[in-house]
């Protein structure tokens, strides 16, 4: 292994920094292979530190040190020690500020890990979160050391005409040898993980935004020249985000300039560096012919997310990386609400919950389960997880549910005001919410320290004589690594009652005033709620809006679900009813498959679809969700032992049967909206495309010549990428004889658009066709595939191993072996991305014995590779721990 004995870091070991940095002056002489860095740190002993040690320990990794000086006195080699990870400087002044000057060089071109300063095509850029700044120069690389930055960039005028860093441009000038320089100053103190620089041949679009207090902010988006016609949507999204944060949280932008740069090589989606966000091109570039409707939506969401960090993350940051959910959970919650306000609240909530339940619940039930505030880690990059992000957002949402929207705003106002300019903890956030609302969150805090998804078991009893309906709720949570026993959580449950005729029933509970919907708070292990004055047995609509991230076990007949689907006034639960009904039916069919019975589709599902199709709907995206079957990975999550073949077979059978029985309705709907296609972008047209393409998917399941003609026609004449992609996806997944021709013509059409080619890889990686494993293998040899580009890796290797359940889990283990080899090849190139790819194997306990042993073998092969990075090692080794 690279690091023979990887160290575990514990939250309980946190101590305040021994030294502080007041300000830093950085200068960079930029060069692809040898960039020179000079850093001048004004430092002092932290008055809050109890340490008597006069050694200054700075973080630094992979740096070529040239010079160290303290207060202008150069140090000789006896006065400091260098190790792989640190620079220790002996006896620095204890009672006054002192200046540390460091000179070092780095090689951005050799930096394929894309952390620190690296090269993305011809552009130099940085990624410092979480601990990448130490790959640029020696520093106190921890988020609770905040200081002001002044940065001077020097570079060749032709290679690097644009030189950017955080804050405001304060000066620039010309130098000899065709070089120039630009100086930047960031007036806001920040931790070094928010530092950024970008240099390259970039074009920019400009706009401006007037804040609520009347200040004019200049907005710039920088991209490579060939992408300059794909920035308008990102700019509009930025303006929408700025307005929304003013209207919703009263938060205004602080600097005079906001810059976004799009780079093709990026480990994540985007990064909130102060005043200079760096984005994966995937979340900036869009033109109707190159990006789908969902790309447009994601771009707006990610732009919003990084913008919102300016308050929830930058002005107020994390004390240590265990507190990551403080900024990420809260900011994901903020971006979810933003997208909900911009698009459809119902649809956004459903999509977020779908993701949470399939992916975060799996993480929470597996060997890598951890609380949203973890208490230990080996490699912090491995903790940017679905749990910290998505469950973290659910926990913030529950706080809002418990204190109400107004109370939540009171709490967030107090939080932003009280902690502005500081590095704080999750507990500070919760305490502020408590104080602002005069509420006790003592028990609620367990959501931060306990891992695992709670299960709610529901029992109901109607009492004819007393006219009461009692609901008994029992909560439990299975053991997770290092947490064998769980304490009861404080769980908000939104609830409604429906009368037998479908109308909303009045809720009378204890001394609450009668109401139409109620929030009940579960705190005990078991509690019974008795609803009164009910003339007949009501139908319960529980956990409305998915008011808590829990699994509910409640007996519901298909008839009851059909009733809720028709009558529930809660849009989430209405969809949930449809989803549960189709899940139950698919599980029934899987039993039939096992028993070798002939398959037959329950007519109730067809009837329900028919009813839905006859109604008129304003929100066609919502209708599309009602008409979509649960995903294969969702169904897998509900099974004791996952049977990928049976899931696929049963689900396809339902699709085909629905297509046969509702052929005319699907065709009519398809044609109606296909005729109206204008290529425009607004909620209406997006919904029409979505429902149309759902219908197309069903129709092609008929495998008829007519349906193949329809889909090929759409593929050839599509006016935008949404339609082209939808058609090609359906073709790739079918037995259409023209499939290869279509894929090839798509490649030829789009070979110069990297993001479209990513989609082309993904489509093939996700195909359920019999030959898809061979195709994926061949595609790794395609000239356009490269392991050094994370987007390519995710679009082929990531998609195959995480979204092609059927073929990745082939019983002979070829998928597992393939993935292990790819991870091993990627390990030294890019440990962060390699480590994320391991997730395809971590759920081995959920499969049959044969697959279990094959998956474990693949994990062992990975661990036994010489030079395994600590990123990959941590995930692979933890997932093999028995229990
Ligand atoms: N701060 C993160 C980006 C990041 C994470 C950088 C980990 C380095 C290591 C950023 O705010 C973020 O969360 N980005 C998300 C997208 C977001 C919409 C959830 C991402 O990159 O996936
Ligand atoms: Zn974030």
Please describe the structure with a list of short key phrases separated by commas or semicolons.
883 residues, alpha+beta, 8-stranded mixed beta sheet, 5-stranded mixed beta sheet, 26 helices, 31 strands, binds ligand BES, binds zinc ion
Give a short overview.
The chain is of the alpha+beta class and 883 residues long.
Description:
- The chain is α+β, with helices and mostly antiparallel strands.
- Helices cover 40% and strands 20% of the residues.
- The protein is built from 26 helices and 31 strands.
- The chain has an 8-stranded mixed sheet, with no helix packed on it.
- Strand 2 (19-29) and strand 3 form a beta hairpin.
- Helix 3 (324-342) packs antiparallel against helix 4 (345-365) and helix 19 runs parallel beside helix 21 (790-803).
- It is globular, with a radius of gyration of 28 Å.
- It starts with 8 loop residues before the first strand and ends with a helix.
- The mean pLDDT is 97.
- Ligand BES is lined by residues 129-130, 268-272, 301-302, 305-306, 309, 328, 332, 335, 384, 389.
Give a topology summary:
Blueprint: E1 9-10, E2 19-29, E3 35-45, E4 56-59, E5 64-70, E6 73-74, E7 80-82, E8 86-89, E9 98-106, E10 116-120, E11 123-127, E12 147-156, E13 162-165, E14 168-175, E15 179-190, E16 197-200, E17 203-210, E18 216-223, H1 232-249, E19 257-263, E20 270-271, E21 276-280, H2 293-308, E22 317-318, H3 324-342, H4 345-365, E23 376-377, H5 386-419, E24 423-424, H6 426-437, H7 446-449, E25 455-463, E26 468-476, E27 491-498, E28 518-522, E29 526-531, E30 539-542, E31 551-553, H8 558-567, H9 571-594, H10 603-614, H11 620-626, H12 632-637, H13 644-661, H14 663-675, H15 683-700, H16 705-717, H17 721-732, H18 739-750, H19 754-765, H20 772-779, H21 790-803, H22 805-808, H23 814-827, H24 831-837, H25 849-863, H26 870-880
Parallel strand pairs: 2-12, 18-19, 19-21, 22-24, 25-31
Antiparallel strand pairs: 1-23, 2-3, 3-9, 4-8, 5-6, 5-9, 7-8, 10-11, 11-16, 12-15, 13-16, 14-15, 17-18, 20-21, 25-26, 26-29, 27-28, 27-30
Helix pairs in contact: 1-2, 2-3, 3-4, 3-5, 4-5, 5-6, 8-9, 8-10, 9-13, 11-15, 14-15, 15-17, 16-17, 18-19, 19-21, 23-24, 23-25, 24-26, 25-26
The protein binds ligand BES and zinc ion.
